[in-house]
Amino acid sequence: MAHAIARPARADVDDRLAFADAALGLAGHEVTDPALRALMERVASNEMTADEAVAAMRQHVQD
Known about the structure:
Elements: H1 10-26, H2 34-44, H3 50-62
């Protein structure tokens, strides 16, 4: 039986995005594409998995 993943509070989503932005910044990167930022938010909100987001990001960038 599959278990539903609870949707995190907005503050938790914001914290997750801030952490990702900080990690990317330390590596000298920044995600500015609105479509990619939206995918990051969906992962932070447990709406999709990281693997699903990577596939969608690749599709977006390669098109």
